[in-house]
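ingest -> validate -> predict -> emit
validate: passed (alphabet ok, no gaps, 86 aa)
predict: started
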Amino acid sequence: MHGDRTGTSSLRQALLDLGYDDGYHFASCMNENPRDCDLWCAALEAKFQGRGTPWTRTEWDQLLGHCRAVTNTPCVVFYAELLAAS
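emit:
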């Protein structure tokens, strides 16, 4: 059994229990929708390597528009951008 060492899986479950239908967690891209990894790579490259343009609400909506909450990496890396896009 894999333990939740940081509590983010537990936080995700708590958000689901509170009625946040879709809480995005790293497991969301690794286990549930691996195609998201390509989008996260593009966002990381834009932010840290200057490839492409910085993401706006349009790009974030394509990736996270269905979510009502986010937890864990990689979302935390983009907290300022996500807040600005909301």
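The radius of gyration is 13 Å.
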